[in-house]
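Me: Here is a favour to ask of a fellow structure person. Could you put it straight underneath, so I can go through it closely?

Assistant:
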Amino acid sequence: MKRALLALSVGSIVLLGCDLSRRTTAQTPAAPAEGASIESQTQAQKGAAPVFDSARAFEHLKAMVAIGPRPAGSPALRQTRAYITRQLSSFGLTVQEQPFVGQTPLGPIEMINLVVRLPGRRTDRILITGHYDTKLFKNERFVGASDGASSAAFLIELARVLKDQPHEFTYEFVWFDGEEATVDWNMQLADGNHDNTYGSRYYVQAALKAGALKSIRTMILIDMVGDRNLQISRDSNSTPWLNDIVWAAAKRAGHGRTFIDAGTTIDDDHMPFVRAGIPSIDIIDLDYPEWHTPADDLPAVSARSLQIVGDVVIAALPDIEKRLVQ
């Protein structure tokens, strides 16, 4: 779960600071997604500008939805991790696991963040993140097509697109576990935190402990970007200059009607980074009638929405890098 607080309108493991104690590779690489664009494959081979392929991303989304509900600690989420790892390994990427125990109102739950690094000219990092778990419902079947699957699928495809592209900073992709509340988002825990964002909070704590926070130059959060009627508002908790760059990129790409100039305030996985002083942005469509209902399923989402966000993020990354080197 994530919450709109105010809606104005509708290297080495130590260097990573991630306490990444496991590395996983796929035993059986998956075949390319059905419907993948031949043009995008050809352009990648020629070293041309990166092209996000929403057909591939949507196949990943559908595969995760087919697994069913995927709450933290469940066998289904373990199956989802295996799927994500197979896809990334088939691209020649190494997946590192960051295991931890979330102390939840339901008791200790074993959770695992997944991390993939694309080295750049500098070791300082731009994090591109999202969550891959779904909200736990006892009496409803919630498969989270947008809320969970869209971000996880998006990151798989973006990692594929960017893996062979030159970039100034190291790109680090993180799939957070435990974003959703196990009982109640507002429930305060014994440690003073609330019942949410377990994976992102642990990641920041581990980086702080390792003295690696300074190497994180910015954090880009992707969440709930599958909405068929996609409308993304500026989050006031996000860093203003990041909002400005992303919205300018959206206008250049012809997606100004999707990245709208309305405001909202979101509590999400970016907040532990914001509180740690790391420039961060949440790209999210929380104005989604199907949110946390059984209707958050395939008919409510579209590949076109994933394509729009992919185009905008790819267009924005060079400007984000330029800002960081100033």
Observations:
- Residues 49-325 form a domain with the Aminopeptidase fold (CATH 3.40.630.10).
- The chain is about 35% helix and 20% strand.
- The two ends are 36 Å apart (CA to CA).
